[in-house]
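Q: Here's a chain of 165 amino acids. Please give me its 3D structure as tokens.
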Amino acid sequence: MEHGYFGGYLLVNYVARPLEFHCTMPVKPSRAQELLYGPTIDDFVCGEQIAKALTMKAKLTPQVVLTDCSAVLALSLVSKLPVAYLATSPDAEKCEQMRIPVSMGHCVKHLDAPEYRVDVPEQSDFTQQEFAELVQGIAPSFDLAEPFQRIVEALYEAHPVTRAA
């Protein structure tokens, strides 16, 4: 990563309207950190540093932190917030092993609701029933994956240098 890792956090209500938005400056691990953390560097930077900083900055508490970056599941190691990885890709089944953060090992469980599947850390208290209720409580036109595109666009706006990458 030439410019480092960027993080964005968008808290929305049940009709996908923004309640809070926060983003980070680029976080670039040092060469020593890359060597010491090895294959867990993404989990450390994305989950334990960026996601933790963003959620701690927030004024409101979400029902669940939904992410499109599997390394953010490592947030569960440093926070009590429920965190879930939204498996949106049609190839989700094929790439399942690649999605599990190294630091989580193979300790994830899958939760399903009509049209959606999420992976949560095995030790998570976030249940199948809570996920189903969350999905039922959102507006019919609300696509859980759509806000991630807004985050990406907001990060490009906040950090124009990322466009050149």
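Q: Can you summarize the key feature?
A: Residues 8-151 form one domain.
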